[in-house]
Write a structure and sequence with these properties.
Elements lengths: L2 H7 L5 E2 L3 H7 L3 E6 L11 H12 L3 E6 L21 H15 L14 E4 L1 H4 L4 H7 L6 H5 L2 H10 L6 H4 L1 H16 L1 E7 L3 H15 L4 E5 L12 E2 L2 E2 L9 H9 L3 H10 L5 H13 L5 H14 L2 H15 L4 H6 L2 H7 L5 E4 L8 E2 H8 L6 H9 L3 E3 L2 E2 L6 E2 L9 E6 L3 E7 L1
Parallel strand pairs: 2-3, 2-5, 3-4, 5-6, 9-15
Antiparallel strand pairs: 1-6, 7-8, 10-13, 11-12, 11-14, 14-15
């Protein structure tokens, strides 16, 4: 597999230094991508870079995932208008361990192959590097004029940031440049990958390598992924879409990909899956012939949910979707966990009742009119129940005065009432 050709047809090349393609064709190349460890989970904004590493390894080259344990304590000014909070050592160590676990779903760290992936942490070589060492070994090679010419610096100095640019942030490009120099010397790393906003920092690294030992190093960046409206990719009303199920449930993760627009699905399926060109072209053809079936979105959601979570989690997310939009049974409803149940029914009207009401049983007609106002009157509820239009936990309510007890609770806490085909109500017993 030709790495650059693979990225090109997937729309994943933004900038590339001359000579990069030739270097990759000569033999195995070691390349690295930096990941910011300011959280203990990656989010989908990181995925384009991670997929670049995945394609690199599948093309026979060696990927290094660099977590910025040192640079994460400072903050990169690229594309940001504020300085980031600094992290302590313990937090960083925890974050890095969590990130490696997530990366291992995309990269092979375990095998004995010469191109097995490695995780490196720049804190390991920066922690004993004194300021005087830094000034002598790095600072003297790069002029202030060179650093000032970078877009990330110019934007901050031209008033786009409220507080200007701190010296700490100004030196960030030198720190990242030193990472590249260190990996060049210690690991034979000749290529750095990143998002297009990293071009300035990456080329500072190639320049530092050239000026310190006359070495040749290269750079390749991918475009920053945006939504169809130009908005920030991966951001929803509730914040980032995370890879860790503690922050974004597999159901919500699956739904994010399922709900992208047609044009976005055509771009995303190339970037965020390992499907071949032929497979994607066949899916696009199917989509064009029957857009209402949302073939691309369904396959995109399947591939990426399975890769990030598991096939079992993907299947559970599909089943959970069917609860709301399909003909799922009460058995399926009883199987799903509390977090998924709440995610599925987020936004539906909710009522709270005393759990004690159900200990000795309460008639449905009293429960759903007096204690939780699902129906405006007992007469209306009676009519709907007689017409077969009311369900409790996905089972038709047989009689309007049916006894409801704690045995009916889902996750020992919830009752799901359905009025007609589309009106759901969640009753929480506390």
């Amino acid at each position: 597999m030709n790495f650059v050709d693979e990225l090109r047809w997937r729309g994943m090349v933004h900038d590339m230094m001359p000579g990069t393609e030739e270097l990759l064709q000569k033999g195995m190349v070691t390349a690295y991508l930096g990941i910011d460890p300011t959280a203990d989970s990656l989010h989908i904004g990181h995925l384009c870079g991670v997929m670049m590493l995945r394609h690199l390894q599948r093309s026979g080259h060696k990927p290094l995932a660099l977590v910025g344990g040192a640079t994460g304590m400072i903050g990169d000014p690229s594309g940001k208008s504020q300085e980031r909070n600094l992290l302590d050592e313990e937090t960083l160590a925890h974050n890095i361990a969590c990130i490696k676990k997530q990366l291992s779903k995309f990269l092979d760290f375990q095998s004995d192959a010469p191109n097995s992936a490695e995780l490196v942490n720049n804190y390991d070589w920066m922690k004993n590097f004194t300021f005087l060492d830094f000034a002598r070994e790095v600072g003297k090679h790069i002029t202030v004029n060179y650093m000032m010419a970078k877009d990330s610096v110019k934007k901050r100095l031209n008033g786009e940031a409220r507080d200007g640019l701190s010296f700490t942030e100004f030196t960030y490009q030198l720190l990242q440049g030193y990472d590249y120099l260190h990996l060049y010397n210690e690991k034979g790393c000749r290529l750095q990958l990143g998002g297009s906003d990293q071009w300035g920092n990456i080329t500072t690294g190639t320049e530092l390598i050239r000026r310190t030992n006359g070495g040749e190093a290269y750079a390749l960046t991918c475009p920053l992924i945006t939504k169809a409206d130009g908005g920030k990719f991966g951001k929803t009303e509730s914040g980032n879409v995370w890879l860790d199920p503690r922050y974004t449930s597999p159901y919500k993760f699956y739904q994010f990909w399922l709900n992208v627009g047609d044009e976005e699905a055509k771009r995303y399926i190339k970037i965020f899956t390992s499907l071949t060109k032929e497979e994607i072209e066949a899916l696009e053809k199917e989509q064009d012939e029957a857009p209402h079936l949302r073939i691309l979105q369904k396959r995109l959601a399947k591939e990426i949910t399975t890769m990030v979570h598991s096939e079992a989690e993907y299947e559970a997310a599909v089943e959970a979707s069917n609860i709301l939009f399909g003909n799922a049974t009460s058995e399926v409803l009883k199987k799903i966990d509390e977090a998924t149940l709440l995610a599925v029914f987020e936004g539906v009207p909710q009522f709270k009742i005393e759990k004690s009401l159900l200990l000795s049983g309460t008639k449905a007609v009293d429960l759903f009119t007096e204690h939780a106002a699902v129906f405006p009157s007992k007469g209306e509820m009676r009519k709907l129940v007689q017409g077969g239009g009311v369900s409790l936990n996905k089972e038709k309510l047989e009689a309007f005065d049916q006894e409801i007890t704690v045995q009916d609770l889902l996750s020992d806490k919830y009752l799901l009432v359905q009025r007609g085909k589309k009106n759901y109500y969640l009753i929480i017993a506390e």
